[in-house]
Structures are given as C-alpha cells and as structure tokens.
Amino acid sequence: MMKNFKLGILGSGQLGRMTVQAAANYGISCHVFAPDVKDSPAGQICNTLSNADYTDKIALKKFYSMVDAVTCEFENVPSIALEMAPKECIKSPGITALKTAQNRLCEKDTAKFLGIPTAPYWKIESIDDLANAMRFLDSNAILKTAKFGYDGKGQIRTKTGDDPEILWKEINTDIAILEYLVDFKSEISFLLARNIDGETIIFPPTINYHDRGILVHSTAPAILPSNVIEAGNDYIKTMADHLEVVGLLAMELFLTQENTLIFNEIAPRPHNSFHWTIEGCKTSQFQQLIRSLSGLPFGDISVIGRWHMRNILGHSKEELTKGYKSSGKYVHEYGKQKTKENRKMGHITWNE
Ligand SMILES: Nc1ncnc2c1ncn2[C@@H]1O[C@H](COP(=O)(O)OP(=O)(O)OP(=O)(O)O)[C@@H](O)[C@H]1O
Ligand SMILES: [Mg+2]
Q1: pTM of the entire structure?
Q2: Which of 24, 83, 129, 253 is the most buried (most CB within 10 A)?
C-alpha cells in the first residue's frame, strides 16, 4: 500500500461511515465530500471533510489534490463529481458502473445484453408509451421511475385495466420503466469485490426480506441449490467485468418458484444486505472495498455460522433497546441527527 494513502468518499451516509470505520482499522484516513457533511453519519467520524455541492468544480479540484482514491458511497452522486478525478486517482466504482446504476433502464438493458435474465420491461416516456405497454400485460406489474429511486420510492404497483393517464400523473417523471411483477420465492443478493488489477472475490449470497419496498431483514449465507449460487456468481462476475467495476458491486435478484434467478438491479457500492459481513465474515464488505482500492490483497471471506441482520427503521427504538440488552447482538447506530419514518437509523446483527 502507498504510504499515507488517503481515501476520498463522495457521500456522507451510513455506508460512508462504515467505510471510514474499516479504513481506520487499516491505518487509512478518509476525506468525505458531500453537500450535507456536517454532523452526517460519515462526516462525524472522518479525518477531513469538504462541505460542497457535488458539482462544485473548485471544491472538487481541491478535494482531488488531497486523495489517492475516490469511492462513491451511493450511486446517485452526479457523475461529474467522479469525472473530475485526475487520471492518477483510483476511481470507484468507475464512471461506466456509476452511470449504469443510476438508470434502471440502462442497468436492465446491460443485464439483457449480457444474457442475465430479466422480467419483461418497457421504456416509458409518455402516456402513449404506457398505454401501449399495458396492452401487453397479462398480470400485475410495477411502474418505476428510471432514476433516483431507493428504498422502494418512486414505484407504483399496477394491474391490467388501470388507467395509464392516472398512473403517469402519479409517477410524475419524464422517464420510467414498466416491468412485470415477478412471482418470487425469495429475494437474493450477491456481492463481489474487484480490485484495480481486475481480480475478483465473491461473498456468499444473502436472502432478503422487504416490507413495502424497504429491506428489513437479511439472513446469510443463503442456503440455495449449488446451481443457483453458480448462476448468481456467474451473473455478477460477468456484470462486474463488463462495467470494469473497481471496488464493490452488489446485484439483487429474484429466485423464482422454479429455482431460476431473475435480475432486479445493481448497486456498485457496499450493500445493506451485506452488513452482516462486519461481524460474520473474516473480512467485511467495507474492508474488502478498502483493500481493492489501496492495493492490499483481498482478505479471507470465510463465514462462521449463519447470520441475521435487521434494519432499525425510523422511530422503532424498541429493537435497539433489546439489542443492547442481549449479549449475542451487535448494535450499529449511524448517528443520524433526524429520525424520519422508515429512515435507516442503524442495524443489528446476530449469529443463529
Ligand atoms: N419486478 C418486480 N417484481 C416483484 N417485486 C419487485 C419488482 N421490482 C421491485 N420489487 C419489490 O420492491 C423492492 C424494491 O424494488 P427495487 O429494488 O427495484 O427498488 P429500490 O428503490 O432501488 O430499492 P432498494 O433501494 O431497497 O434496493 C424489491 O426488493 C422487491 O421486493
Ligand atoms: Mg432494490
């Protein structure tokens, strides 16, 4: 590793915070850049911070004069912020990966191109597009904004016979995607780390439980037929190599009743469903991210036992209290200043 290696992080949320924590253990200091960095989860504990807009070129130039590598903590960082990085700065996840993950249509088109199965979907830019696509529907579907969706926001469930005009008004965007509702048995996520030399490592997959589009509970490693795990590993490796990801790539998939995998989306960053790796894996997702950017070798990803992770959402303090009282539970609070309904405030993990 380079002496005095400094990692830049674009974004100030909990994923940035846990990256800072992992970096600290390796003696690496972090510089967090965000428009709301003061008192933010990552800003509270980093070594240096820049409080500026992601499009502020002067602030970005200064930031880049102080870091050796940069990583995006969430995929909706305006791409200009990453594009401003000088040639010698290691860029994570990479410009193509970032741009692809910012657009649901783009990521589904990429999956399709690579032979990764997706549910049937349509690009929707007008009421006419929607009305046309809905003529092909013979079951339930979901209309999603193509950009800026997270935690199930910007999604409407729909069925044949619904009025396209009302739906289009409600979704309130200029570009959307209509996709078939998958009748899944479970939701699974895969996670891969890829370093600057293109070497990869894949974590064992996780099974996820959502409530109204928000992840509430994960268990890992997922117990699945070996051919399902092999297919998932193949899909995520193909996608990561194609996008030339540097750092982490997560892929969310549906497991159908017939035990086949259907692509949902990618996230080129640490993923909520792999927070269990902090205690459950010899090397966590955050440590693996730091290693892939700083030139350190990948760590061992053996898992000890079976793990659970529960998100602490909004005002639900009860689980936190229980977590602190229980000897087998690991509590993580993100230090968020404001509690909002369904906001991710922390998480708890435990071994089965
Ligand atoms: N085509 C689909 N068929 C069935 N369920 C779906 C489909 N698309 C989304 N869902 C459900 O809604 C959840 C959220 O959808 P999606 O992952 O696309 O959105 P998101 O806002 O990016 O969510 P997150 O940030 O939590 O990953 C999924 O995990 C799944 O439970
Ligand atoms: Mg999702």
Answers
A1: 0.97
A2: 253
Token pair, residue 288, equals 């693996």
CB 186 within 8 A of CB 148: no
Q: Is the pLDDT assigned to residue 160 strictly greater than 90? A: no
Q: Is the CB of 317 under 6 A from ligand 1?
A: no
Which string of b and e fits 82-92 if b means at least 16 CB within 10 Å? bebbeeebbbb
Cβ of residue 157 lying under 6 Å from some atom of ligand 1: no
Token pair in block for residue 180:
């078939």
Where in the sequence of the chain do the CATH 3.30.470.20 domains occur? 184-351
Mutating to test ligand 1, I would choose from 264, 311, 347 the residue with most ligand atoms within 8 A of its C-beta, which is 264
Domain 120-178 bears CATH identifier 3.30.1490.20: yes
Residues with CB under 5 Å of ion ligand 2 are 252
- Helix intervals (H) in the chain: 14-25, 57-64, 79-83, 95-101, 104-113, 127-135, 164-171, 226-243, 277-280, 285-294, 318-325
Nearest to 77 by CA among 257, 347, 278, 269: 269
| 52 within ligand 1 shell (Cβ under 6 A) | no
Atom of ligand 1 nearest to the CA of 267: 27
CATH code for residues 184-351: 3.30.470.20
For 293-333, what is each residue's pLDDT tens digit? Answer: 999 999 999 998 999 999 999 988 788 899 999 999 999 99
